[in-house]
Design goal:
Blueprint (H helix, E strand, L loop, with lengths): L1 E5 L2 E3 L5 E8 L8 E6 L6 E6 L6 E3 L7 E6 L4 E6 L8 E6 L9 E5 L2
Parallel strand pairs: 2-10
Antiparallel strand pairs: 1-3, 3-8, 4-5, 4-9, 5-6, 7-8, 9-10
Length: 112
């Protein structure tokens, strides 16, 4: 079981990024999936989750309306579309599934 996160980078406030989580070892349709993030000096926090059926998606208050979680069942990939990025979104972003070790994450830096 493995996650490989990608898509991070250095962007300016207001820009957009799409993060990808390539999953191996299980099907993304078999478990709730999500994204967490950890900013320097802060605890890791949940950003977005998607249910097994895909119909229920939950977001942290700080990103609701700006971020969208989705998945490609055929490619076995989970995405996080991030719009209108803010400096406070700067963090390492991690793919999540209960019971699976964290991957290496992908760094998102929002700075002018």
């Amino acid at each position: 079981v493995q996650f490989v996160e990608s898509g991070g980078g250095l962007v300016q406030p207001g820009d957009s990024l799409t993060l990808s989580c390539a999953v191996s070892g299980f099907a993304v349709t078999d478990y709730p999936m999500g994204w967490f993030r950890q900013a320097p000096g802060k605890e890791r926090e949940s950003v977005a989750t998607i249910s097994v059926g895909g119909g229920v998606r939950n977001y942290a208050d700080s990103v609701r309306g700006r971020f969208t979680i989705s998945r490609d069942n055929e490619k076995n990939v989970v995405y996080l579309q991030m719009n209108d990025l803010k400096p406070e979104d700067t963090a390492v972003y991690y793919c999540w599934r209960s019971g699976v070790n964290w991957g290496q994450g992908t760094q998102v830096t929002v700075s002018s």
